[in-house]
Fold this sequence. Notes:
This protein is an alpha+beta fold. It is built from 12 helices and 11 strands.
Amino acid sequence: MQSTIETISQIERRVALSVPLDVIEKEVHKRLTRLSKTVKIAGFRQGKVPMKMVEQQYGAQVKNDVIGEQVQEQFSTAVREHSLRIAGYPRLSPKPANESQENQLEFEAMFEVYPDVTLGDLTKIELTRPQVEVTDADVDRTLEVLRKQRATFAKVTRAAQKEDRVMCDFTGRLNGELFAGGQGRDVEIIVGGDQMLPEFEAALPGVSAGETKRFPLTFPADYHGKEIAGKTAEFELTVKEVAAPQVLPLDEAFARLMGIADGSIEALRQEVKSNLQMQAKNRIEKLMRDQVMAALHQQAEMVLPKSLVEMEMMSMAQQVAGNLQKQGMKPEDINLSPEMFRKQAEERVKLTLAVSEVVNKNQLQPKAGQVRALVAEVAQTYEEPEAVVRWHFEKPERLANYEAMATEQNLIEWMQGSARVTDKPMTMEEVMAPALSLTPPTAS
């Protein structure tokens, strides 16, 4: 007999389930009989434990297992009969005995189904695609950075200036008292390197070895040290040494240092240019992805399944807690409520459902060749690429991340072919700027 699904709301459903008591009792007896042959209880030989003792010790657990499996089987059958796509897990509750039929255990299952997703006209979405050409000036600037990163330092007797290294001791006091983290010994700071708070940085230019300097420093209101956030401390800085950078010349030795075997400057420039082109390509792909995902999130309309949101909230809380433990925080000191992540979880679930709708509707699932190509690309970074590829294809679950990457690539490519795309010439510096975002602000 087909079950009846009751519609509670747009995505909430309810179904009644019943399991005959005689079916439960037969299965429980069968399992306890099998268990009695292997169970070990003090005072009895294996296989000789009286059935009554087996029932007393294991009967309740076995019965609960059987009931759970029977109810789940009936629920799965009902879902298949009605071709439902279940979101999350069902909430099962037993009916009171006085409301149940004789010789039956009856339950109600409340659950959610995946919502209908409305996306509107995706051809009206506007995307901006950066166009970047890596120039000789970009190569020159990168080589300059690489040379400075590998600079050595030589002690000087003059006053400190930008890019010099200052070695110093410092002591900070709040109301005349020392505070945790306010002291340093033999600390090396690059002048203008933004290693310290702005007021500390401002005290460094012009100082000389042997000089002592005092200055006030106000900690930001959102400073990570809550006990000093927003407060003003008095600092005393003693300079021990000022050293100037000795930048390596752009010559054959430097080229070899950078991995060019024959020391060719031209080969080094070409290598740098290729790397910059790859960086630009990856950056543009990210900028396009961000725009596409933001547009889909904004266009999509749906009723969010509470169960999926709650599962995402729990997952995010567990992930953050795990990261904090890896950083050395004790589990008992981590107080994270899943509710803290509700807004982010809702956004993630909404975007996931929107992406799934576009992918399924337009058949953007990855082809086997795409997935293999992505695996092979990553495998090239290992000593035995073919072995890495074989390992990934031994088990389907190892390909999940690559399948997701390929699906996303297909989605971004499809969206660029469907939406209104404007190509925008940009310099390398502009496109690589960390603050750059081409995603339009969300309408309030």
